[in-house]
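Pipeline run #58 for the internal structure catalog. This entry was flagged by the ingest filter as a single-chain record with no existing model, so it goes straight to prediction. Upstream metadata was stripped on purpose; only the residue string is passed forward. Reviewer on rotation: M.T. Logging verbosity set to normal.
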Amino acid sequence: MTESSDAETSAIAAVLGGRRESFRVLVEAHQDRVWRLCLLMLGDAGLAEDAAQETFVTAFRRLALFSPERGSFGTWLLTISRNLCCNVRRKKIPVTLAILPDQPGETGSSPSDFACRKERFEALDAALAALPAEYRAAFILAEIEELPHAEIALIEEVPVGTVKSRLHRAKLALRGALSAVFTELNECPP
């Protein structure tokens, strides 16, 4: 056994024996590796910091389940970290429409095509954000979520006619806001 693993084994035994403060030894030994893994998996420093912290909280809570016969503490900790990052990516990071291909199976396009599509999606996001909340909700529920007007009316607690009116006004506002941007980006592929 190396000196490092002896220190880890002692720290684990101390924590399991009730000396919670000994967990600091484990955190200090592994915090950089855990944070780097989280950053590489999530691509966002804030999310990585949260995931790294959650990794250590989970490890502390489940420390009694650690089995040195199955691998090192560092490997066990990185496994927890990886699983948490996978969960974060699956649940909290929305897929950006700008990176989706136009057709299933389509491979990457040129960088300029990608930049143009990205600009269009950013313009749409900005235009949607500028809409009044009730128009934005009607548009998103109808056009993006593809809900029927009657269901939107139930969600919004308004008559169907109000939903139709809000949707119409949202489309007019978006058309006006986006016409200049899309005219500018006219040379971009759709």
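catalog note: The chain has two domains: 3-92, 97-184.
catalog note: Confidence is low (pLDDT under 50) at residues 93-107.
status: ready for reviewer M.T.
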